[in-house]
Amino acid sequence: MSCTRRTLLRMAGLMCFSPALSLQRFALEANAAENLWRHGLSLFGELRYPPGFAHFDYVNRNAPKAGMVRQSAFGTYDNFNAVVAELKGQLAVGIDLINETLLTPALDEVSSEYGLLAEAVRYPPDFSSVTYRLRPEAKWHDGQPITPEDVTFSFDAFKTHNPRFAAYFRHVIKAEQTGENEITFAFDSAGNRELPQVVGGLTILPKHWWESPDPSGQKRDVTETTLEAPLGSGPYRIKAFEAGTSVHYERVENYWGKDLNVRAGRDNFDELRFDYYRDLTVAFEAFKADQLDWHEENTAKNWATGYDFPAVSEKRVVLEQFPIRNIGIMQAFAFNIRRGKFHDPRLRRAFNFAFNFEKIDSELFYGEYKRIASYFEGTELACSGLPKGRELEILEVLRGKVPAEVFVTPYWNPVAGNATRARRNLLEATRLLEAAGFEVRDLKLVDVSTGEPFTVEFLLPDPAVERVVLFYKASLERLGIQVAVRVVDDVQYVDRLRQWDFDITIFSWTESLSPGNEQHDFWGSRAADTPGSQNLVGIRNEAIDTLIDHVVFAKGRSELVAATHALDRVLLWNHYVVPQWTYGKERTARWDRFGKPRLMPIYGQSAFPTIWWWVTRRATEIASRL
């Protein structure tokens, strides 16, 4: 008989004696039964894996530990401190290999996470707080135990000094030690089902390391960038690095968590090396020359024409595509609506009519792409048709505060593809611009009220996308818009975005299958004025804030889907962006030195190199043929 069953029988027996006392005890014991320690959390539904499970189904528990993987990174870096990554410097790739979180996700479940640094978690039925119990064996690489003080230090550091986490943790009011190895996070209100898991994703930092002096005697400062290799607790640590050029990680032999069920069969390589490139073409040439082991291909043209070198035909290089099922995406030309010239949604819609996606896809992308029509493209969270049911109920309350099209017209992108349709779209763009208060004078679009010419600058970080913008520029100039295209290096690009110093840029927002508190950082009014937030557009919209709250406080999966559909629909009809395109698969190329599980995780894409391993025989064969 289970403990829960015995408890219910005992409560039933008590009710036979004293009704008033029994009802009180029944309530107390029912609450206690729902506040049990758990080995993991699922936002909706039951966990796939039971307590004490051996390993995730998608790993090879007996994978060998050996070999090195060489990968590329784009741009540069000058920082190992994740706390200030949104505001200062460029964070080095791979820092998550050093640092760990309280929970870790399963790659074959939509919204489930299991204990990593924490061995157990519990929360009351009203979701007003959550308590984590740390594993007593969890240790930093210097051998010191991970403590509740480390957790509270980390929470305060990220919430105070990182705008993205400030938005993410906005409903978490404090973290405090409530037991020998326990930390409780208190929330500002009940009913936010996601918050227990939100804080489970907190990266835990070593308080004692950050509060002690560095080798030169200088005080470390968690609010500043650093190029001192940080102390961590994860499966890897920094072995060597050349600032801005490369960073080299090594597997920690005595890693405290190597025997955990959530770590079994993963982190199998002895070394991981990341080399930085400022040009993706150069990185691809390095891969072809066997200077890199793995290459993710983001260019349709290169995927179609660039892999005819001998190593591919000789099967020494393997091409493989992995379905993307774990995220929705909005990749778009994003307007900075903090600037007055972009305030009118009709003008922003005109930019969409000027974008001839079909011609670009045909001439530049080999017809490989699909136009994006949702902020949650590729998932069940993408709106379609007209709102109905619970979604319509949510939107009805906001009628008059959201675009009228939300209720009567499914969202659509203009379609061109031939000269007739392209001309028709440009005529509609002209009509929208005139309705927004602009007209063409001497072949230039001007603001009727001021006589000022309408000019825009596209800010880009990568020369590879310049050809697309130049294609788009020609259409915009036919409307009288004066267009400049500015390609800057990675450091300048990030700095300008942080200062909102741009007209239009290309940006991607990735969405999980269980959206929640991060939506405040993407679209919330408070984030519009927070440097480093992902509200790049500068959205300040009361109706959208309300819809975000509906998403955050959804009480079930169906409610979450309905609320997300409503949010998606309102974002789309405000025309904050010009949607671009998506592919739906991860294109990869690799030198054939590696093994992967027979059963790949449904939501993990390639999951390389996390659950892959080194195959000595294949590596030796390739080396002998070079």
Task: Describe the structure using short key phrases.
single chain, 626 residues, Dipeptide-binding Protein, domain 3, 3 domains, 5-stranded mixed sheet, 4-stranded mixed sheet, 20 helices, 30% helix, 21% strand, disordered N terminus
Chain-wise SSE layout:
Elements: H1 3-14, H2 19-34, E1 40-42, E2 68-74, E3 100-101, E4 103-105, E5 112-115, E6 118-122, E7 129-134, H3 148-161, H4 163-168, E8 172-179, E9 182-187, H5 195-200, E10 203-204, H6 207-210, E11 236-242, E12 246-251, E13 271-277, H7 280-288, E14 294-297, H8 300-305, H9 310-313, E15 317-323, E16 328-335, H10 345-353, H11 357-364, E17 370-371, H12 389-396, H13 405-408, H14 419-435, E18 438-441, E19 444-447, E20 455-460, H15 466-478, E21 482-487, H16 490-498, E22 504-511, H17 518-523, H18 542-552, H19 557-573, E23 577-579, E24 581-582, E25 585-591, E26 594-595, E27 613-614, H20 616-625
Helix pairs in contact: 1-2, 10-14, 12-19, 18-19
Describe what this molecule looks like in 3D.
The chain is of the alpha+beta class. It has 20 helices and 27 strands. The longest helix has 17 residues, at 419-435. The radius of gyration is 27 Å and the shape is globular. The N and C termini lie far apart (64 Å). Residues 1-33 have low confidence and may be disordered.
State the distance separating the first and last CA atoms. 64 Å
The fraction of residues assigned to DSSP E strands is 15-25%
Question: Which fold name fills CATH's third level, the topology of the largest domain?
Answer: D-Maltodextrin-Binding Protein, domain 2
Largest sheet descriptor:
5 strands, mixed
Q: Major sheet: order of its strands?
A: 21-20-22-16-23
Enumerate the spans where pLDDT stays under 50 for 5 or more consecutive residues.
Answer: 1-33
Total number of β-strand segments? 27
The secondary structure category is alpha+beta
Q: How many domains, in number, for the residues? A: 3
Count of discrete alpha- or pi-helical segments spanning 4 or more residues: 20
What is the CATH homologous superfamily assignment of the largest domain? Periplasmic binding protein-like II
Shape: globular
Report the helical percentage: 25-40%
